[in-house]
Specification:
This protein has helices at residues 5-12, 53-59, 85-98, 113-124, 142-148, 168-173, 191-194, 197-204, 206-209, 224-227, 274-289, 294-303, 330-341, 361-374, 387-393, 409-416, 433-447; strands at 3-4, 22-23, 25-27, 37-40, 64-67, 79-81, 103-108, 130-132, 156-160, 180-183, 216-220, 234-239, 246-252, 255-260, 263-268, 312-316, 319-323, 347-352, 379-383, 399-403, 422-426. With 448 residues, it is an alpha/beta fold. It has three domains: 3-82, Udp-n-acetylmuramoylalanyl-d-glutamate--2,6- Diaminopimelate Ligase, Chain: A, domain 1; 89-303, 3-Layer(aba) Sandwich (UDP-N-acetylmuramoyl-L-alanine:D-glutamate ligase), CATH 3.40.1190; 312-447, Mur ligase, C-terminal domain (Protein-Tyrosine Phosphatase, Chain A), CATH 3.90.190.
């Protein structure tokens, strides 16, 4: 059942006058509005959505508005005023999903949520129609917006759920309850807010607590905090260890044998790294738990090429550039370094701060330095305040450089990088290491 103006009024306890008509889209961006749209007027730091309503109302028919402030004119389309726009959006999402047939796969974890979500969508594609979170919109706005985008003919909705503290996933699942709860891993991101990995695991496991009746969890069985948690729900496990229901063996590069309850398959991935094998196991497990033919899941998994923003590899002007600058934690940085170490040529790691680690900051950066030594990375260029810890922990056998600011690393790249190198860029997103990667790509492209 589509969202309608009458359904909005009933769900939110609002009154309005006018005709009842369906709304095909729910958006927060005024540039995405067309006829038949519910426009959610968010009052943000830079823009206030309420300021665009007069223009939208004059331009389009059959709109509706979700607002928190009184308007200074009487719109042609109904405006539903609420106290808490995020909660109202969640209530609409719950109402909308109740009329849909799609099974909800909720995905959370410290790292790999977005890639795993995209892997699942690729795995399901040969068998069923599914929708999922756009990008990494996994918060109080993104989760209900994704739920409201579920169509009547969708058979699955893969919804990413982030958290920044205890109770946040419980809040999200009050509106969007999963049929399958998938937790990718437990890392140290948000340690500054939660204080320990045990608390991070507790926060992530809220997703399992919220399962629909008859639902089941799919957990990383290589993570003791998940495998030993033994929640009072039906659980399956994925990983590389023998006790997992979905596991990989005979790993050779990006190829492996996938063992699952009732059979096995040979899988050859188009993405690199052991962490991607874990993502593939999770995607297969989610699809298999839905009853999808394993051969179709294999087709979808092997077709996955990545999402373009994470670990994007290009060969330009004789240089292999791995741009994995979208975000970073110790786990994801170590995984990226392992990918770098498999490349031919001299290995150059351009590394920046890993943020939101709290008391784990020093240990996390030291762990990355130890992996650089273990993998015999040839050159490490570090930039940022916390990256100084990493730099100081590197052994003298590694050619190493440190600069306080990212912008100071660009001249170093021109000085250090040479033809035949493999270069990794990795840091927390706010460090904007994508600028360094882009500058190197442009320079090498101009030289070729």
């Amino acid at each position: 059942m589509k969202l309608t103006t009458e359904k909005i009024a009933q769900t939110l306890g609002c009154s309005y006058t006018g005709a009842d008509y369906p709304l095909d889209h729910v958006v927060c961006d005024s540039r995405e509005v067309t006829a038949g749209t519910l426009f959610v007027a968010i009052a943000g730091e830079k823009h206030d959505g309420h300021a665009f309503i007069r223009e939208l109302d004059a331009r389009y028919e059959n709109l509706a508005y979700l607002i928190t402030q009184p308007l200074d004119f009487v719109p042609r389309s109904p405006a539903f005023r609420v106290r808490d726009i995020r909660r109202a959006l969640g209530m609409l999402a719950r109402t909308h999903l109740s009329g849909m047939h799609a099974r909800v796969i909720g995905v959370t974890g410290s790292v790999g949520k977005t890639t795993t979500k995209n892997f699942i969508l690729s795995a399901l594609a040969p068998a069923i129609k599914a929708t999922g979170t756009k990008g990494n919109q996994n918060n109080e706005l993104g989760v209900p917006l994704t739920a409201l985008s579920v169509a009547e003919d969708d058979e699955a909705a893969v919804i990413e759920m982030g958290m920044r503290g205890l109770g946040q996933i419980t809040y999200l699942t009050d509106f969007v309850r999963p049929d399958i709860a998938l937790i990718t891993n437990i890392g140290v991101s948000h340690m500054e807010l939660l204080g320990s990995r045990e608390n991070i695991a507790k926060a992530k496991l809220e997703l399992v607590d919220a399962l629909q009746p008859g639902g089941a969890a799919l957990l990383n069985g290589d993570e003791p905090l998940l495998y030993q948690a033994r929640p009072q729900k039906k659980c399956y496990y994925f990983g590389l260890q023998d006790h997992n229901d979905y596991r990989a063996e005979k790993i050779e590069g990006n190829a492996f044998t996938l063992l699952y309850p009732g059979g096995s398959l040979h899988i050859s991935l188009q993405v690199e790294g052991r962490h991607q094998i874990m993502n593939a196991l999770a995607a297969f497990g989610a699809g298999h738990m839905m009853g999808i033919d394993p051969a179709l899941l294999k087709t979808g998994i092997e077709a996955f090429r990545g999402d373009g923003r994470r670990q994007f590899t290009q060969c330009i002007g004789g240089i292999t550039i791995i741009d994995d600058s979208y975000n970073a934690s110790p786990e994801s940085m170590i995984a990226a370094l392992r990918v770098l170490a498999q490349k031919p040529g001299r290995h150059v790691a351009v590394l920046g701060d890993m943020l939101e680690l709290g008391a784990y900051e020093e240990q996390g950066h030291r762990e990355v330095a130890a992996i650089c030594a273990e993998l015999k990375i040839d050159v490490v260029i570090t930039a940022g305040k916390a990256a100084r810890i990493l730099y100081d922990a590197l052994p003298p056998s590694i050619e190493k450089y440190y600069v306080p600011e990212r912008i100071q690393a660009e001249p170093l790249l021109r000085q250090v990088i040479r033809e035949g190198d493999a270069v990794l860029f990795k840091a927390s997103n706010s460090m904007e290491f994508n600028r360094l990667a882009r500058a190197l790509k442009e320079r090498m492209g101009n030289q070729s």
